[in-house]
Amino acid sequence: MMRLDARTAEFEAGFAALLDQARETTARVDAAVAEIIAAVRARGDAALLDCTARFDGWTPAGVGALKVSAEEIAAATAGIAPGLLKALDLAASRIERFHAAQKPEDLVVPDPAGLTLGMRWTALDAVGLYVPGGKAAYPSSVLMNALPARVAGVGRIAMVVPAPGGALNPLVLAAAQRAGVTEVYRIGGAQAVAALAWGTASIAPVDRIVGPGNAYVAEAKRQVFGRVGIDSIAGPSEVVVLADATNDPRHVAVDLLAQAEHDESAQAILITDDAGFADAVAAAVDAELASLPRGAIAGESWRRHGAIILVRAWPEAFALTNRLAPEHLQLMLPEPAAALREIRHAGAAFLGRWCPEALGDYVAGPNHVLPTGRTARFASGLSVFDFLKRTTWVEASAAGLAAIGPAAVALAEAEGLHAHGRSVALRLPPAG
Amino acid sequence: MMRLDARTAEFEAGFAALLDQARETTARVDAAVAEIIAAVRARGDAALLDCTARFDGWTPAGVGALKVSAEEIAAATAGIAPGLLKALDLAASRIERFHAAQKPEDLVVPDPAGLTLGMRWTALDAVGLYVPGGKAAYPSSVLMNALPARVAGVGRIAMVVPAPGGALNPLVLAAAQRAGVTEVYRIGGAQAVAALAWGTASIAPVDRIVGPGNAYVAEAKRQVFGRVGIDSIAGPSEVVVLADATNDPRHVAVDLLAQAEHDESAQAILITDDAGFADAVAAAVDAELASLPRGAIAGESWRRHGAIILVRAWPEAFALTNRLAPEHLQLMLPEPAAALREIRHAGAAFLGRWCPEALGDYVAGPNHVLPTGRTARFASGLSVFDFLKRTTWVEASAAGLAAIGPAAVALAEAEGLHAHGRSVALRLPPAG
Question: Among the entry's GO cellular component annotations, what is one (chains A, B) (predicted)?
Answer without folding.
Answer: cytosol
